[in-house]
Amino acid sequence: xxxxxxxxxxxxxxxxxxxxxxxxxxxxxxxxxxxxxxxxxxxxxxxxxxxxxxxxxxxxxxxxxxxxxxxxxxxxxxxxxxxxxxx
Length: 87
Fold this sequence. Notes:
Elements: H1 5-36, H2 41-61, H3 66-86
Helix pairs in contact: 1-2, 2-3
């Protein structure tokens, strides 16, 4: 543990940031599972919109890298396209 007050504060801040990043990543994974298991196409479209919004927020906050966000958004589009092709 650090002895300097500024370092102690920095450790606490970085721990909060780490928890926030984990929360974003975990929620994105959960929403992907929900998107894949959605029953109706309109329900899937709503879930996809929410997921893309969360991915953009996570990238803006720095929780995930911009290229990672782009890859995830592309995956959302592929899932929607596959659903519409089978329907």
